[in-house]
Amino acid sequence: MTSPNKCRRKLVVVGNGMAAGRMLEELFARAPGGHDVTIFGAEPRVNYDRIMLSPVLAGDKAFADIVIHDEDWYAGHGVDLRRGDKVVAIDRAARTVTTASGASEPYDTLVLATGSDPFVIPVPGKDLPGVVTFRDLDDVEAMLAAAGRGGSAVVIGGGLLGLEAAAGLAAKGMTVTVVHLMPILMERQLDQNAAYLLRKAIEKRGITVETGANTTAILGDGKVEGVRLDDGRTLPADLVVMAVGIRPNAALAKAAGLEVKRGVVVDDHLATSDANIFAVGECVEHRGACYGLVAPLYEMAKVLAGRIAGEPVPGYVGSVTSTKLKVTGVDLFSAGDFSEGDDNDEVVLRDPARGVYKRVILRDGRIVGAVLYGDTADGSWYFDLIRKHADVSDMRETLIYGQAFQGGGVLDPLAAVAALSDDAEICGCNGVCKGTIVQAITTKGLSGLDEVRAVTKASASCGQCTSKVEAVLAVTLGDAYSAAARKPMCKCTELTHEEVRERIDAKTLKSVPAVMQELGWKTSCGCPSCRPALNYYLVAAWPGEYRDDPQSRYVNERVHANIQKDGTFSVVPRMWGGLTTPDELRAIADVADRFKIPTVKVTGGQRIDLIGVRKEDLPAVWAQLNASGLVSGQAYAKGLRTVKTCVGKEWCRFGTQDSMGLGVKMERLMCGSWTPAKVKLAVSGCPRNCAEATVKDIGVICVDSGYDIHVAGAAGLHVRATDLLGHVDTEEDALEVCAAVLQAYREQAAYLDRLYKWVDKIGLDTLRAEVIDDLANRRALYDRFVVAQRAVRKDPWAERAAGHELHEFTPLAKLAIIPPVLVEV
Amino acid sequence: MDVSRQYWFDLGPLSSIPKRGARTVQVPRREIAVFRTANDEVFALENRCPHKGGPLSEGIVHGRKVACPLHNWIIDLESGDATGADHGCARSFPIKIENDRIFIDMGVAAAA
Ligand code: SRM
Ligand SMILES: Cc1cc2nc3c(=O)[nH]c(=O)nc-3n(C[C@H](O)[C@H](O)[C@H](O)COP(=O)(O)OP(=O)(O)OC[C@H]3O[C@@H](n4cnc5c(N)ncnc54)[C@H](O)[C@@H]3O)c2cc1C
Ligand code: SF4
Ligand code: FES
Q1: Is B38 within 8 Å of A811 when comparing Cβ atoms?
Q2: Residue of A630, A626, A703 whose CA lies nearest to A662
Q3: Which residues on chain A are in Cβ contact (under 8 Å) with B106?
């Protein structure tokens, strides 16, 4: 209608960004000269590579380097570029657009390519000068100006943009803190293991990372001065960068009455609800998805260009996306779906020495996702396999080594090691090659793994190469070598429990992802056997510091009650040393009445068990018991259970010491502790031993001259009488020795080993030397125990009765409504 | 009767279930366990282990599986099938997530 040239149609493009630019390139390649093109850009400049703003901020590139279409390009294609003029309205009936400057332009075809708006969290102070987003060149210039003045910057958001901004600002000399709401960085693109490595790399640049941190206000008088977090802390800031996400910029389309959900809704040919108007890029919503990366936009641009050129093109079907982080020195790639897997459908490779983590996720023999950190060379290869839905079952064994590795048959590991040259590296952590190991074995006459570790250090660090070192032993010694029966913790690692514990200590590993990465775990998230063990080891190693992971605990420890076969629970309050009072008994009776608890039983541990409590009732039962001074008996815990006592000197005609009193003191000292397996004590007042102390983990037998300390008894699946550890003269010493034994057990034993199993492993003499002969060591163990106990001095029942982890005890929903189908029948 | 009809019930926000955790939903005649994996996938199974009726909602969630708290059978969250050498199946219910809220389809349950 209003075309100036009657065979050329009038194309108007709103937004001069990456999608628009690519669409026009594709269009001119297909139908040169077919359209009169006018393009409006709100930014006062030509089209540039927005992705490259990060290198511009970091100072690695100048604006000129990132221009995609210069003035000549627009002129050469006869494009009328109206930069710095924003379109403010569309008149669909008249087919015109109006701009902020008041200009009006008619169209036959209109393309919306308005991109996204950075999301600004609605906190007080968000409009203060010094608060910027990270979207266009103006933002970068504002950041560079602030960086020129030095000082500190807080970047809110630990995603791709936030981290690139943080790295850039740090490179420019600012003191940078990244504040991220989620527990891990880039949680949408990474799993916890890659995020752990990323965090290490970011922190290495001097950037402080605060995860799980919620911003509640931006502070300042006239300009930004700080950021307030919800834990009450204030971080000083001269610059605040908001990089918490983007929202499709669909306001214009919405005002024009086009269908808009999260973005401008388009069909597979990028048409909006108005057949003359198309949309492309980040502003669209296609099949429910919005994108924030260029690859999908380029695919859309191609489809749209074909459509406008009038060519029959296949529609756009949506994209699988992949991410790379553009921070120098950080190699990271992720693509597709990487939901937590298990060993059936994932392949994991870790190289702690090089800081490499690779994980490929499979479903039905096809790759559905990949996360790579530290070595991303094969990223595009995996990405291609994902997009093609290629069947990779045949490559599964070697898939993780990458494209270069394909084609070779699967090698016998022994043959593979035999074939290695002498200078081939076996242990990456310590840089030990095969020749060194072979030489050590032959010249020093080594015969086992431990010796090789001691002499050469091979496999002494992360332990991942253990099987290779064993193969070298086997190849070198032939039949003379028989591998000692090492029992790895589980199928996720080659290390034994004890080896893992030593390394947690030696390498100061303080989180599960840190352990898994630095010790080369073979799975991404562990399994039900190693997760509770690692959680315990970290609790024991870093008391008060490590945050317990309830989801890695067995139900009893998570809900602080013992599950019964019908799904109800039992509740066992402490009765210190087996002593009780009429008031306590009344309280127990009242609770049993009020909550209609079906069974009340005296246990074998000298206390009372309330059995058959419904889960929803637990917090109320505990609250009522608490009110009468009764606390959790930890009958559910891998921790101190009971301290049984006999009557002792107070009443008994044979009693030699105050066994009841000592038992109560023991129980008060030790209750609440977490241990590798359950721990039971008993104190008997004389060798007649009515408290059965000689079948307890730790047993004290009072004698005239003092106290005999016994250890390593049991009366469960395995009945084992205790061994006498030693004799002490005073009650204080008895308490100190027992606590020192318990602490040594806590620090050294394998998860789930009862105390006697651990003593059998290390030898009674070793333990005796540690806690009886070496007084300084005994004292140190005792002191560490007391420190650890400080972290657990809260009654878990009281915390839960007060509402802690309420979600454990209440159903998510009760659906009483009967669906109509029942009525229809 | 049209058994394919769906009845979606809103169970509340995703965040009300801990990652690698579960909550229960009570409906007439049965209890349902709703699981959330580390990667925010959500699955619903009848809260009865095919072995001896253990409450699956109390188990340790790993990957897309849960270990029954009573005798450690490993149940696939998606299908409800026991894995490994064990045989049996816990009934599963369709779940969808919209705007970070969890919806369960009780149509099948009602029809059964
Ligand atoms: C309640 C109680 C039986 C009773 O009514 O007397 C009991 C009940 C259970 N015992 Fe026990 N044991 C009880 C005293 C004992 C004793 C006697 C003692 O402590 O003096 C022993 C032998 C002593 C020992 O431990 O060496 C005992 C050896 C076991 C064992 C075998 C442990 C072993 O290492 O061989 C198990 C199985 C396990 O822990 O894996 C076990 C496990 C259990 C469990 C936790 C089974 C389970 O996993 O669900 C039972 C929990 C019931 C519940 O919900 O309360 N129970 N259990 C006793 C609670 C004591 C308390 O007050 O806390
Ligand atoms: C710092 C940074 C780093 C990035 N890194 C990567 C990366 O590594 N990999 C990757 O794939 N992606 C990356 N992205 C994302 C990528 O840049 C975007 O996906 C892409 O630019 C979107 O293209 P678009 O054309 O849809 O929107 P844009 O490129 O934003 O273009 C939209 C344009 O429209 C203009 N506009 C809006 N409304 C109007 C109006 N009413 N009138 C006139 N003009 C208007 C805007 O001013 C803007 O210039 C990055 C983004 C940023 C900001
Ligand atoms: S002996 Fe067996 S049946 Fe009895 S309480 Fe202990 S574990 Fe249960
Ligand atoms: S009831 Fe679940 S394993 Fe036995």
Answers
A1: no
A2: A703
A3: 815, 819
Q: Could you give the domains of chain A?
A: 4-117+248-309 (3.50.50.60), 131-244 (3.50.50.60), 331-410 (3.30.390.30), 487-551 (no CATH), 556-627 (3.90.480.10), 654-672+685-798 (3.30.413.10)
When CB atoms are compared, the residue of B27, B53, B63 closest to A341 is B63
Concatenate the DSSP letters of all residues of A448-492 into one string.
SHHHHHHHH-TTSSS-TTHHHHHHHHHHHHGGG--------SSTT
pLDDT of residue A381: 86
Q: Which ligand does the CA of A133 lie closest to?
A: 2
Q: What share of chain A is helix, strand, coil (3-state, %, to 5)?
A: 35, 20, 40
The H or E element that residue A122 is part of is: none
Structural domain containing residue B87: 8-111
Distance CA A417, CA A92 (A): 72
Tokens standing for residue A261 = 């959900």
For A502-525, how does the pLDDT look when each residue is reduced to its tens digit (9 = 90+)?
999 999 999 999 999 999 998 888
Nearest CA to ligand 1 atom 60: A605
Please tell me if the CB atom of residue B52 comes closer than 6 angstroms to any atom of ligand 4. Answer: yes
Alpha-carbon distances of A64 from A20, A23, A47, A148, rounded to whole Å = 19, 22, 11, 21
The 10s digit of each residue's pLDDT in A419-429 is 788 888 788 77
Q: Do A567 and B59 touch (CB under 8 A)?
A: no
Global pTM? 0.77
- The residue whose C-alpha atom lies closest to atom 19 belonging to ligand 2 is A293
Mean pLDDT (whole number) for A722-749: 97
Residues in chain B: 112
A806 CA from centroid of ligand 3 (Å): 30
